[in-house]
Structures are given as C-alpha cells and as structure tokens.
C-alpha cells in the first residue's frame, strides 16, 4: 500500500527557525546554579580594602603619592581583575 504524496509544502527555513526559537522559549528554563566556588573570589576586593593596616603608612611612595592614594587605585584594579576572572570562570562570559 503506497501512501499518497504529501500535500504539505516543505517548511520555510525562516519559519522553522522561528518555531524552534519559540519552542525553546516555551520550554521550561533549565535551573541555573549560581553556586560556583569562583564566586568566593569576589570576597577579596571587599575584604582587602577594609584591612587598614595595609595602607596606614606614608611610605613607600609611588611617583610621590603616599601609600594611601596609590593603594586605593590598586584596589580598583584588584576589583576589576577579580570580577573579570569570576565572570569568565562562571560561564557568564560565554558567547551565545
């Protein structure tokens, strides 16, 4: 028994992409865990600037600036670096 030829046209690639996107959007979202151990690294730029004995000195000076000022700038670099590392290592920096 031969089946009659199908009368439905082949799917349009643009329409197929939209229906796949809609299907993916309607599917239940996969549970995402934010409990990566890399997140603990974010404590470093919070705790380090709070340790005042680190910058409670006048010397050493860097380009004539007392320790307090150039160390504040170093803390900014520390914060940016650790945030970037955590962002990359937790997978949020991946291209989608």
Overview of this protein structure:
- Residues 1-13 have a biased composition (Pro residues).
- It comes from Catenuloplanes atrovinosus.
- This is DUF3311 domain-containing protein.
- Keywords: Membrane, Transmembrane, Transmembrane helix.
- The structure is a single chain.
- With 96 residues, this protein is mainly alpha-helical.
- Helix content is 43%, strand content 0%.
- The radius of gyration is 27 Å and the shape is rod-shaped.
Keywords:
96 residues, 3 helices, mainly alpha
Through-space gap between termini = 48 Å
Task: Give me the secondary-structure category.
Answer: mainly alpha
Q: What is the strand tally?
A: 0
Poorly predicted spans: none
Rg on CA atoms, Å: 27 Å
Helix content: 40-55%
The ordered string of helix (H) and strand (E) elements is: HHH
Percentage beta strand: under 5%
